[in-house]
Write a structure and sequence with these properties.
about 350 residues; alpha/beta; TIM Barrel; 12-stranded mixed sheet; 12 strands; binds iron/sulfur cluster
Length: about 350
């Protein structure tokens, strides 16, 4: 968006505050679209056309854009993918971003493979909090869901993360009816006396993931099931928090619910996303994107980048479309966004 175009609509640019008064303070940066798993709810079975390496943001570009966002008011950054651990420069990226003045939290979401070797070094680099995706506690089912026999590697990654002092370690479980919903109680039993938080994520529609509404297990149903065996006490969270969190009374572990399908939280959304090829996405489910990479590579200075970001935020939608419509909007596959 050119400065002249912005001059036409200055009312749209208020830094990271959108037309609905939502202040965006949380940036999710996808470092790659590559992954060493093939989870059906994330990666289309036929795979995706990987972004050519020259089109991916370099380490310097990631750090520069992160510094622009932090200068505008972002105080939490989450590193995602694809799978962020496939980047060899991850520790360097993490330490440079963690050093940005004004950043409070540096988080990462990972599938946990090779985390057993890197959990401690990433913590030393400045990573504060870790979320590990795991949708089953059964090896055979892990193979079915991810098409890879990496169950032991993930479990070793979880143990190494706890040993490295991340607490709690958050476990993201995408609950799919008829696939893994019979393990809901097993996950809580596994986690109840450890510094683990199991986050039950409602199954979301993305291009190529064969989503169907009947596959969604509403959070209210999961909560009801858990309350037949555990006492859940609400945990006070940030108004823009993605998950509804509950303590397991009498236990160390906790649970969370990410309810974007049956109880969406768009009204308090504070999230922006940067894709691995440098596009700004103001909403997970909306296909609109703006290339910050191209502006960078064309020599734009930080002010011009800030203006472009502010304009995009100014155009952000109030909420995501109804779940049945989401796969028809021409969005990217989940693996290309990073959740
Ligand atoms: S769907 Fe979009 S607007 Fe709603 S919470 Fe997610 S990112 Fe925010």
């Amino acid at each position: 968006m050119t400065a002249s175009a912005l001059a036409l609509a200055p009312e749209l640019a208020h830094g990271l505050v959108d037309r609905f008064g939502r202040r965006h303070t949380y940036l999710r940066i996808s470092l790659t679209d590559r992954c060493n798993l093939r989870c059906g709810y994330c990666m289309p079975p036929e795979g995706i056309a990987w972004t050519p390496r020259p089109s991916l943001l370099t380490e310097d570009e990631v750090v520069r854009l992160a510094s622009v966002f932090v200068h505008m008011g972002i105080d939490k950054i989450r590193l995602t993918g694809g799978e962020p651990l496939v980047r060899r420069d991850l520790e360097s990226i993490a330490s440079r971003i963690a050093a940005l003045p004004g950043l409070s939290i540096l988080a990462m979401t990972t599938n946990g493979i090779s985390l057993d070797r890197r959990a401690a070094s990433l913590r030393a680099a400045g990573l504060n909090t870790l979320t590990i995706s795991l949708d089953t506690l059964r090896r055979d089912r892990f193979l079915e869901i991810t098409k890879r026999d990496s169950f032991d590697a993930v479990m070793a990654g979880i143990e190494a993360s706890l040993a490295a002092g991340y607490a709690p370690v958050k476990i993201n479980m995408v609950v799919m009816r008829g696939v893994n919903d019979d393990e809901i109680e097993d996950f809580v039993t596994w986690a109840q006396d450890r510094p683990l938080q199991i986050r039950f994520i409602e199954y979301m529609p993305f291009p190529g993931n064969h989503w169907h509404k009947a596959g969604v297990v509403p959070w209210s149903e999961i909560r009801e099931r858990l309350e037949t065996r555990w006492r859940l006490a609400p945990i006070a969270v940030h108004p823009s928090a993605v998950a509804k969190e509950f303590a397991l009374v009498g236990h160390q572990g906790s649970v969370g619910f990410v309810t974007s399908m049956t109880d969406s939280f768009c009204g308090t959304c504070n999230r922006l996303r940067l894709t691995s090829d440098g596009n700004l996405k103001t909403c997970l489910f909306h296909p609109a994107e703006q290339s910050l990479r191209d502006a960078l590579r064309a020599g734009a200075d930080d002010d011009a980048i800030e203006t472009q970001i502010a304009y995009a935020v100014g155009l952000k939608q109030a909420a995501h479309a109804p779940m049945e419509e989401l796969t028809r909007l021409g969005n990217r596959a989940m693996v290309e966004i990073g959740g």
